[in-house]
Design goal:
By secondary structure, the protein is α/β, with parallel strands linked by helices. 37% of the residues lie in helices and 16% in strands. It has one domain: NADP-dependent oxidoreductase domain (TIM Barrel). The relative contact order is 0.14. This is NADP-dependent oxidoreductase domain-containing protein.
Length: 306
């Protein structure tokens, strides 16, 4: 087990190689550091594909499953869990509140019904966008706290929150968020507003969506050479280096793939090597030479460095 807030003697990462550890959250629950993110299921064909892929992921060891109300994949996730044959108690299930403007309790109850589960392991506010005031976010957070108190969500957190958003809810929170899920990769390290240091100082873990962006959407880029060098050194693919860069910093990496071979490779190879602190720093420093945001681009200014 790796604590999110107490790095090992090297200053980063899991304490041993040979497994992909869990992360201990501030509420003492544990979250697997590698997650499978479900895609959107907005049509019948997409829904059937999502179920097939999720079952395949679970049966290949991906027990941390990341869904969302807004991606219409909760029903499919629930079906996949049952089809997988894996006991619910072994799984870590995340879903997210789509809108901060409606009835939060009703939205959560509907999500739980679609999942056909009695509880989720983590419930997140998907985004703070459109909040009318800090008090608005505080009210929504209080409703998540009530959901957690009911036992239907073991942990609660947020997604796409800035430092200002986090400060707003921390002013009144009885239970602080355990995690902030954000787009995170070498070309989007959130350096300008100090998001990661703020999260660590306040015992808020970080989960990364889009962790493979530097080797997929954002090529070519300054990290290309070091990714290739390290992939050759460790006998892995560049994507595995990118995922390990997150994991070795105690950041949850959320990935998805339609390839069973690739998912198996991630699960097996990520457990077999670890980047050194110097290699992590080299990737970080090269990444700072380019800014790229792949998601929520309409919500942020073109020159936004968060």
């Amino acid at each position: 087990m790796l604590s999110a807030f107490e790095p090992d003697a090297s200053g980063t990462g899991p304490k041993q190689v040979g497994y992909i550890p869990n992360l201990k959250l501030s509420d003492d629950h544990e979250i697997p550091l590698l997650a499978y993110g479900l895609g959107s299921a907005r049509s019948k064909d997409e829904a059937e594909k999502i179920i097939q892929l999720a079952v395949m992921a679970i049966q290949n060891g991906y027990y941390h499953l990341d869904g969302a109300e807004s991606y219409k994949n909760e029903t499919e996730l629930g079906i996949a869990i049952k089809k997988s044959g894996i006991d619910r108690s072994k799984l870590f299930v995340t879903t997210k509140l789509q809108s901060i403007h409606g009835d939060v309790s009703r939205s959560f109850a509907a999500s739980l019904a679609r999942l056909d589960l009695s509880y989720v392991d983590l419930y997140l506010i998907h985004a703070p966008f459109g909040a009318s005031s800090p008090e608005h976010l505080q009210k929504v957070w209080a409703e998540l706290e009530a959901i957690q108190a009911s036992g239907r969500a073991r942990s609660i957190g947020v997604s796409n929150f800035s430092v200002a958003d986090l400060k707003a809810i921390l002013q009144t929170a009885r239970t602080p968020p355990v995690l902030n899920q954000v787009e995170f990769h070498p070309y989007l390290q959130h350096a300008s507003d100090g998001l990661l240091p703020f999260c660590r100082e306040n015992n808020i873990a970080v989960a990364a969506y889009g962790p493979l962006t530097a080797v997929t959407k954002a090529k070519p880029g300054p990290c290309d050479d070091i990714y290739a060098e390290l992939a050759k050194k460790y006998g892995v693919e560049e994507g595995e280096v990118a995922l390990r860069w997150c994991i070795d910093q105690g950041i949850v990496a959320i990935t998805t793939s339609a390839s069973e071979q690739r998912l198996k490779a991630y699960m097996n190879k990520l457990a077999a090597f670890k980047l050194t602190p110097k290699e992590i720093e080299r990737i970080s420093e090269e990444g700072k030479k380019k800014h790229f945001r792949g998601y929520w681009t309409k919500k942020f200014a073109a020159d936004d460095k968060r």
